[in-house]
Amino acid sequence: MFKKNRPKPTLAHSDAVENNNVVKSKVPPSPVSPISKASLQFHCQLAHGSPTVFVSGFSNVKELYQKIAECFDFPPSEILFCTLNTYKADMKKLLGGQIGLEDFIFAHRKGRPKEVELVKTEDALGLTITDNGAGYAFIKRIKEGSVIHSIPHIQVGDHIEKLNGEVMVGKRHFEVAKILKEIPKGETFTIRLVEPLKSGFNSIAPKSAKGGAKKSNFGSGRETLRFKAGGNAEIEEKDDVMEVGIEKINAILESFLGINDEDLATQIWEVAQGKSNSMDFADAVDNSDLEELGFTDDLVIELWGAITDARDGRI
After folding, report:
1. Residue 126 near residue 137, CB atoms below 8 Å
2. Mean pLDDT for the chain overall
3. Could you tell me where the beta strands, DSSP code E, fall in the chain?
4. How far apart are alpha carbons 167 and 109 in whole angstroms?
5. What residues does 160 pair with on adjacent strands?
6. How far is 17 from 250, CA to CA, in rounded Å?
7. Phi then psi for 173, rounded to 5 degrees?
8. pTM of the full structure
9. Averaged pLDDT for residues 277-295
10. Reduced to 3 DSSP states, what percent helix, strand and coil does the chain have, rounded to the nearest 5?
11. Dihedral through CA 29, CA 44, CA 174, CA 155, nearest 10?
């Protein structure tokens, strides 16, 4: 049956961690569209305003950042994160492990740094942290009524550059969250942030390139370019059943581990492919890179229930 020595999760619900690329599962390749990814071109702008460029020929987030940086002639380290179909720092529109073939990419560049000293008056700060897949952890959500919520200088989209002088650049989201969690209650600490560069206007409209797509067409397609393990990218048709299953898996991960991670949820869904019972699913988890996350038996059972509910149309 399931492993009896599965470690219990250590992350707290309140200091949730989110990321776009936590682990890589070993799954069979998906059918590939005859369209070559090398021939794909995506509209792209800087979120604070710029002409439209086209980016292509990338297989992962780091390569995408490199392509964008080359187009605008600045180092890729200047990019904090990208959003799809909106110039706003909308955390629901973050670019993760896939891009719709008609999506418009907005790159959010580093803005001004700021440093805040605060007292940890509660065990939980109320931060949800994610990272950009290229070494920058940033704030994805701030819980209303939390310690951080009362500090207007700390905002969603801010990159966490240093904690008490320790550099956070290059650390994963869960490492940054762990450091925050381990700060003793009642202690004063300093957080250095870098906010996304802002346009200075309340709203801007994308500047369409000659022959480019109109804003009304953003995200209207069914096909996506999905980043895979090993640096590969494949074109896939959107799967409604899979989308529902991933959403439910994410809800369970947040409940059990304080993690809300679309890419991790996708990997779990893919590991379950071809499995007909919870024991086979548990073995598949234990024999994949997911094992290092230390899922408990209860969590595995809940995940399997969500997967079968989605498959059978019960969600």
Report:
1. no
2. 81
3. 42-46, 53-55, 79-84, 98-100, 105-119, 127-131, 137-142, 159-163, 166-167, 188-196, 223-227, 233-237
4. 19
5. 193
6. 12
7. -55, -40
8. 0.71
9. 89
10. 30, 25, 45
11. -150
